[in-house]
């Protein structure tokens, strides 16, 4: 799960949580120029894929 509020996601029982950007825009920042926003989105997706590929024994926060 990508979340701007990781403590809530972990308390809700998500096994893998990636730190998102903002509550309004979890997977990006529209205030940035298009190229930079795209880079933020790509970084979050790549971190999410690494989180999925990582074995975990308890809820884990992956800091983007």
Annotate the secondary structure layout:
Blueprint: E1 2-3, H1 6-11, E2 16-19, H2 34-53, E3 60-62
Parallel strand pairs: 1-2, 2-3
Describe this structure in words.
It is a single chain. The N and C termini lie close together (12 Å). The model has no long low-confidence stretch (mean pLDDT 93). The chain has 64 residues and is α/β, with parallel strands linked by helices. It contains two helices and three strands; from the N terminus they run βαβαβ. It is 41% helix and 14% strand. Strands 1-2-3 form a three-stranded parallel sheet. It has one domain.
Q: List the helices and strands in order.
A: EHEHE
Number of spatially distinct domains: 1
Number of helices: 2
Going by helix content, strand content and strand pairing, the class is alpha/beta
Assign an overall shape. flat
